[in-house]
Write a structure and sequence with these properties.
Blueprint: E1 4-13, E2 23-31, E3 36-41, H1 47-52, H2 58-82, H3 89-103, E4 111-113, E5 117-121, H4 124-135, H5 143-160, E6 168-173, E7 178-187, E8 190-195, E9 198-199, H6 205-224, E10 232-237, H7 246-259, E11 264-268, H8 272-280
Parallel strand pairs: 8-10, 9-10, 10-11
Antiparallel strand pairs: 1-2, 1-4, 1-5, 2-3, 6-7, 7-8
Helix pairs in contact: 6-7
């Protein structure tokens, strides 16, 4: 299938011009060859937007997005009405291009657009959804991504306290079983202390419990094989309190209880003093 050259812009909500802070709230996509103009806006599940701009009444956001949707639908109808209405394609293309550029032109309003960007698309509808999922839904923020960020934070903390040189990334293993940890302190080729940050803020409560359970099992297997006899620390980050459901919070608490065990400590990622204390002693 051939791919179409498309132009797109990220829709941004900026209620306070004074600070320049904004949130991505939608995507506008234009395919010149087919004269396609599509958009997708964040109308539901907007809690993270209204909580970020906590001083702002949420009705302001809802009304702003409703007005924008009406305007974009109006432009879509205008394009359809003029489709084929010009005698030459250059005039028609110029008309469409002018509308798209006028839509994303900088204005002193709460709605702004990013710079015009280009993408190749087999299906403009699917590309619109993919761009929305990335820039608004942030679907790249996986458990693995979150834990990489947590590991970077722990590494920086250890460096600040002059403890980083004691820990290295190591795979603890025998012929049948092995686990890689980001922070391992060794002595005489034996792991004597391990730190593994865990992200336990998944939207699905089952995923929270299962992820914690997998790491508890990994430690138990290493202990069983006499590969890890020293203490283990799990600095954990759970669901955001302001956005988490009661089910998520309950799953998080249950997972903390299940993780703790013989020579296994569990602390909140924000408790930096406890992480440093574990690493230093």
């Amino acid at each position: 299938m051939s791919r179409l050259a498309c132009q797109y812009a990220i829709v941004r909500f900026m209620p306070y011009v004074e600070t320049g802070e904004f949130a991505n709230v939608g995507i506008l996509l234009w395919a010149p060859k087919t004269r396609y103009l599509g958009f997708k806006l964040l109308r539901r599940k907007h809690a993270r937007i209204t909580q970020f701009f906590e001083e702002l009444d949420k009705s302001v956001y809802l009304k702003t997005m409703a007005n924008l949707e009406v305007e974009l639908h109006r432009v879509q109808r205008m394009l359809k009405d003029h489709l084929g209405g010009f005698g030459d394609n250059d005039r028609e293309y110029g008309f469409h291009k002018g509308l798209f550029q006028e839509l994303i032109r900088p204005r002193e309003t709460m709605i702004r657009f990013s710079e015009q960007r280009a993408v190749l698309a087999e299906s403009p509808d699917q590309t619109l959804q993919d761009l929305y999922d990335h820039y608004v839904g942030r679907n790249f923020v996986t458990k693995e991504y979150q834990e990489t960020l947590l590991e970077k934070g722990v590494k920086k903390l250890l460096e600040q306290r002059d403890l980083a040189r004691r820990f290295t990334k190591q795979r603890i293993e025998d012929q049948l079983y092995g686990v890689t940890f980001p922070f391992v302190e060794q002595r005489d080729d034996h792991a004597i202390k391990v730190i593994k940050p865990l992200f336990l803020g998944q939207a699905d409560s089952t995923a929270i419990i299962e992820h914690g359970g997998r790491w508890k099992l990994k430690v138990e297997q290493l202990r069983k094989r006499n590969l890890l006899n020293g203490p283990v620390l799990f600095p954990v980050k759970g669901p955001e309190a302001a956005q988490a459901s009661d089910i998520q919070q309950e799953a998080f608490r249950e997972t903390l209880d299940n993780l703790a065990g013989d020579n296994i400590q569990v602390v909140l990622y924000a408790e930096q003093d406890r992480i440093v204390e574990f690493a230093a002693h």
